[in-house]
Amino acid sequence: MAAPGAGDNMASVMNEVLSSLKALQHDNAQLASAIDAINGRVNMLAGVKQVHDVASAPRKEEPDAEPKKPEQPAPADQPPSSPSSSDQLDGTPSTATAPARPANTSKIILTSYPGQAGIDPIVMNWGHKDPNQRGPVVVSRHPSTIRRRNAIGAHGGSYSIYHALAVASKNLRLDHRPDFTDTEPAANIGPFPQWSDPKKIVSMDPLGHLSPWLFKEYITEQGIEIRPTIAVTKAHMKLPELEHSVKSGRLKPDGKICINESGELNVTKVAVEPVWYLPGVAERFGIDEGTLRRTLFEETGGSYPELITRGDIKLFLPPIGGLTVYCFGDVAKMSDPNVKLALRVHDECNGSDVFGSDICTCRPYLIFGVEEAVKQAQAGGSGVVIYFRKEGRALGEVTKYLVYNARKRGADRASEYFKRTENIAGVKDMRFQALMPDILHWLGITKIDRMLSMSNMKHDAIVEQGIPIHERIPIPDDMIPEDSRVEIDAKIHAGYFSTGKAMTMEELTKVHGRAWDDLDH
Ligand SMILES: Nc1nc2c(ncn2[C@@H]2O[C@H](COP(=O)(O)OP(=O)(O)OP(=O)(O)O)[C@@H](O)[C@H]2O)c(=O)[nH]1
Ligand SMILES: [Zn+2]
């Protein structure tokens, strides 16, 4: 058992103070907030003690381990201390002469509090029209930036973990500063009125493609780390199916959008990483901000304690995948209400999209979406495909394959398609399209003429955001792969749009997929 440390004594003293204050509490609001503050402090000290216990527990020596260099102790070997009011948040004592140390050898800062010494978040008025009044998204824990953060989490979505590995393995220096020369957006998008509506865009930073340039002074004069969360580029793309479309005469090269006989396309691409405005995200899901914060904290293994302790910080950069926009034709036409827009919103299905699995309609619908988008752009309108990283209905590939096994070991009936997923995951879908329309607002889209999707969830989320959909276009029957009839019929039965007549449950039980045995022949 670890010897009681400073954290123990402080915590017990504070607990005594807390009990006395509680006895006096009654209706005094000021006292209640003082109690809250002390409560937070006690919880933090308890957390510090746990880390201390772990850090000071005797460890078995590994015979092959290299002796540690005394001048560079690993973080876990240092007794972490709580940030006292005289400590700066970059982990250095608040003496003016104290040398700055790199963050990975300084004290561990488990969390921070709004009133703590040194805390001075950069202004963030989400949805403000003037970028200077809105402020940059600042999330880095670099010593020069940690006190000024106005966002929780880390840049890069799920790739923040690879970033950590690069730093831990000393492949990436903590003091590396990105050189953004010539990385500006390759096309102009916006600004649109939607960018300054705090309710319309809540899951991405509308200024994310411009941040290093809009907020340059913060970087050059104050050494604050500011990174883009959106990048806009241009490219060519080549899909074998589109070469076939040209050969069969369905698609005609025009030298601009469809460049040549091999069906090569000109495209403008936008990559977006998530930035969540927590009050807005909570509102979309019809829950309160506190519930959202607490659940995010718990379900990420307690990874982001500031979700709990920093109610003043409203932004969170979650460790999840983002999205990519593929725009065909003139980007200015996406927001032009006078021309037609064809749109496919697609969620990732790696097995089909990339590797051609025939158990679902994903790649064929994606290709159909690209082809229709290109045709709309060629006809003087605009064509857009948006690709979200939400593999397996955001349940992931492992769950998806478990469902495939259960389906193929059973009768693989359309009538049981969603039940199989629910049995394993507890839900049939975790994509929750509520945040999806943000990107449409960001692109300045105010209506959709041709929606290349049958999903009622996508449809309803878009319409709820005030963007009307004029026409819904199902995947053509001749593009549905052999083994994916089960999926498409189950979806239609569950409420997906279809131009055909609704199937009865009895008809649905007759739709079978291929059994594994059939594959062996
Ligand atoms: N869990 C699970 N996910 C699947 C299965 N088949 C496909 N998916 C996932 O379902 C999602 C399909 O997304 P989309 O292609 O956008 O299609 P949709 O939203 O169902 O509807 P449409 O827009 O009409 O195509 C992707 O995330 C796929 O990875 C399956 O059997 N199990
Ligand atoms: Zn699929």
UniProtKB/TrEMBL annotation:
<keyword id="KW-0547">Nucleotide-binding</keyword>
<feature type="compositionally biased region" description="Basic and acidic residues">
    <location>
        <begin position="58"/>
        <end position="71"/>
    </location>
</feature>
<dbReference type="InterPro" id="IPR000926">
    <property type="entry name" value="RibA"/>
</dbReference>
<dbReference type="Pfam" id="PF00925">
    <property type="entry name" value="GTP_cyclohydro2"/>
</dbReference>
<protein>
    <submittedName>
        <fullName>GTP cyclohydrolase N terminal-domain-containing protein</fullName>
    </submittedName>
</protein>
<keyword id="KW-0378">Hydrolase</keyword>
<dbReference type="GO" id="GO:0005525">
    <property type="term" value="F:GTP binding"/>
</dbReference>
<feature type="region of interest" description="Disordered">
    <location>
        <begin position="53"/>
        <end position="105"/>
    </location>
</feature>
<feature type="domain" description="GTP cyclohydrolase N-terminal">
    <location>
        <begin position="107"/>
        <end position="299"/>
    </location>
</feature>
<comment type="similarity">
    <text>Belongs to the GTP cyclohydrolase II family.</text>
</comment>
<dbReference type="Pfam" id="PF12471">
    <property type="entry name" value="GTP_CH_N"/>
</dbReference>
<dbReference type="InterPro" id="IPR036144">
    <property type="entry name" value="RibA-like_sf"/>
</dbReference>
<dbReference type="InterPro" id="IPR032677">
    <property type="entry name" value="GTP_cyclohydro_II"/>
</dbReference>
<feature type="compositionally biased region" description="Pro residues">
    <location>
        <begin position="72"/>
        <end position="82"/>
    </location>
</feature>
<feature type="compositionally biased region" description="Low complexity">
    <location>
        <begin position="83"/>
        <end position="105"/>
    </location>
</feature>
<dbReference type="GO" id="GO:0003935">
    <property type="term" value="F:GTP cyclohydrolase II activity"/>
</dbReference>
<dbReference type="InterPro" id="IPR022163">
    <property type="entry name" value="GTP_CH_N"/>
</dbReference>
<feature type="domain" description="GTP cyclohydrolase II">
    <location>
        <begin position="332"/>
        <end position="474"/>
    </location>
</feature>
<keyword id="KW-0342">GTP-binding</keyword>
<dbReference type="GO" id="GO:0009231">
    <property type="term" value="P:riboflavin biosynthetic process"/>
</dbReference>
